[in-house]
Amino acid sequence: MGADRTLIEKSAVEIVGLLKGGEVSPLDLIATLEQRIAEVDPAINALPTLCLDRARDHARRLMECTLEDRGMLAGLPVPIKDLVPVAGVRTTFGSPIFADNVPAESESIVTRLEDRGGIVYAKSNTPEFGAGGHTFNEVFGTTLNPWNLERSAGGSSGGAAAALASGCAWIADGSDMAGSLRTPASFCGVVGLRPSPGRVPTGPDTNPYGLLPVEGPMARNVTDAALGLDAMTGRDHTVPMASADSAGMFLEAARNPRKPARVAFSTDLGLTPVDPAVEALFLDRMVCLERAGLPMVEACPDFTGAHEAFQTLRAVAFAVATGPLLESHRDLLKPEVIWNVEKGLALDGRAIVEAERERVRLFHTVRQFLNVHDILVCPGAIVPPFPKGERYVSECNGRKFETYIDWLAITYGFTLVSLPVICIPCGVTPDGLPAGIQIAGHPGGEAELLSVARYIEDALGDWRPPKLPEFVVRHP
Q1: CA separation for the pair 276, 210 (Å, rounded)
Q2: What is the model's pTM?
Q3: Which of 92, 115, 174, 246 has its CA 20 to 30 A from that of 230?
């Protein structure tokens, strides 16, 4: 068959069905993506590193197996974020320090995806070491938003989100500490799922005991994200904490949408200012859900103390993972990374203890809140996609922020208490820019969360144009 433009519009689940039915081959999909990337990626810079020959070699090996033995993804191509090593493929971590790095071994999430029929064909762009909610670095430059090429695609999984929104991927790998799956999902009109810590193990890791960063799937809809999560889960001997193989239960949950019994919503979680256009769209969507019969109540747990606790624990995580590079390559690190590492190294034991105690208190506060409410819903980001030339959001609705991550409080509040959270598209602002909503569920409750998210996705209706973003029309 070769390249087939009509495949671009299909969902990941539909593509896997075609693969398992023998109607398309993995080589057809790679050819389709190669053509699509050549058409649109020069403008958005989502997938700066391609490994198409490696992908074709893998596809041919997979095609020697019977259709039944090709795994749950059956030959579906998947881009991997440039923070994750892939054997034989340039992996830079978005840093000049590793500009020419070609690892000999892949991280476990890559081998797990490949064992389940995923085919790696590209690396998606990321800010240096994933630091920040805007995807730019000194190696590859800036990833632009497919909906408006003058705007940010978000970060740090901005390359993955932009690839999905522009038709250069069906599902994608991403990671999330302060909202790196959810912010770009909101900015690009796609889905980003941050699972509970340990649900998607990956290693060897520089900080295997850290609970803040996790890996997770991105996709164009909830059901595809569930497929991606199923493919990423499983036991992993390279890390100390790993959940069991999901055995397909997440896709099954998404295919069976469930109406939540009690829905709490908040415009700001009591943590942050919100852009008026985002707030207006969010409240309109909450009215839409109420009209669809969902029981809605405006409420949220008390997140007081979340800023200080997260900033401290994030700084510790950066000092552990990136600290050694400060001594050897300080001149090549971006200032935000230097600041985070130095903050972590300067902390005393008392500050760390207080942050851990605050996290414990917040976790139990949120846990008790979710005993009353099934889910908690809030905006996916506090602003629409911002101009590409800004490094980060420095103020919102009249309030100035002190650090480059303060504007991400609406996402890192959930990170701090280890909740699974999915960000799904909900509409566009008056300027035609996408916005999303976050839906947070019980710790370890990804199956329930996906079922509810699918119900809400259906209740919101199809807000998007019949095709991919206008960018795609302009670059056919």
Answers
A1: 35
A2: 0.97
A3: 92
